[in-house]
Design a protein that fits this description.
Blueprint: E1 8-15, E2 18-25, E3 30-36, E4 39-46, H1 51-61, E5 71-77, E6 89-93, E7 98-103, H2 149-159, H3 162-167, E8 174-176, E9 185-188
Parallel strand pairs: 3-7, 5-6
Antiparallel strand pairs: 1-2, 3-4, 5-7, 8-9
C-alpha cells in the first residue's frame, strides 16, 4: 500500500500557559535509492509517490535516457502501488523505497558526478558548463499564453496542493493546456 504524503497525527501545543492536544499533518520525506541496471546510483529525498516519474525525470535531466524506448523495465518496491501506462513495471523489490531502472541497451551516458540531487534546477554539481547543454535541443516556439490566464493557473495549482495546504511543506507542479481560453489543467503533482 502506498504511503500517505501527509499522514495525520496529534500534537501537544503550549499556548497561553497551558497544553492543548490538536490534530496536525506533517509531510513525509523519505530516502529513495535509485539504481541503474542493478547498480546503486544515488539516494534522493522525496515525498513518497510518483517515484517512477521522479526517477525517469532525473535520468532524463542527467542524459542517461532521452526516451521511454531506452528503458526495458523498471523494478519498484512491492509496497509502492505505482502504475504507469506504457512502462513495464516489475513490483518485485522487497526493500522499501527503491527504483531500479533497467536499460534496453547501454545508457546514453553514465553520470559523471555524485548525482547530488535537490529540488533545485540541477546546475550545482555539474563538472563543466558544457555538461548543462549536453544532448538538449532548443525548444521550438510554443503556444502563446494569454498573460491574463496566469493568475488563474496559479490559483488552480494552489487549490490542487492539498498536502501543502495541510502542512506548509511540499513541492508541487502542474501542467495546463494553454490552447483553451480556460487554460485547462491536465495534471497537478
Amino acid at each position: 500500500m502506498a504511503k500517505p504524503a501527509a499522514p495525520g497525527l496529534h500534537v501537544r501545543r503550549w499556548n497561553a500557559g497551558k497544553w492543548t492536544d490538536s490534530p496536525d499533518a506533517v509531510v513525509t520525506e523519505e530516502p529513495l535509492q535509485l539504481v541503474l541496471d542493478g547498480n546503486a546510483l544515488s539516494v534522493v529525498m522525496r515525498t513518497p509517490g510518483q517515484d517512477v516519474e521522479l526517477a525517469l525525470g532525473l535520468f532524463y535531466a542527467e542524459g542517461i535516457a532521452r526516451s521511454l524506448t531506452e528503458i526495458q523495465t523498471i523494478r519498484i518496491s512491492a509496497e509502492s502501488g505505482e502504475t504507469e501506462a506504457g512502462i513495464r513495471l516489475d513490483a518485485s523489490i522487497m526493500d522499501s523505497n527503491q527504483v531500479d531502472i533497467h536499460m534496453a541497451r547501454a545508457p546514453r551516458r553514465r553520470p559523471e558526478r555524485s548525482m547530488l540531487s535537490s529540488s533545485a534546477c540541477g546546475v550545482c554539481g555539474a563538472v563543466l558548463i558544457e555538461d548543462l547543454r549536453r544532448d538538449l535541443a532548443s525548444l521550438p516556439a510554443g503556444p502563446a499564453i494569454d498573460p491574463k490566464l496566469l493568475p488563474m493557473l496559479v490559483e488552480r495549482l494552489r487549490s490542487g496542493q492539498g498536502v501543502f495546504e495541510r502542512t506548509g511543506g511540499s513541492r508541487e507542479t502542474s501542467f495546463a493546456c494553454a490552447k483553451t481560453s480556460a487554460g485547462t489543467t491536465l495534471w497537478t503533482r
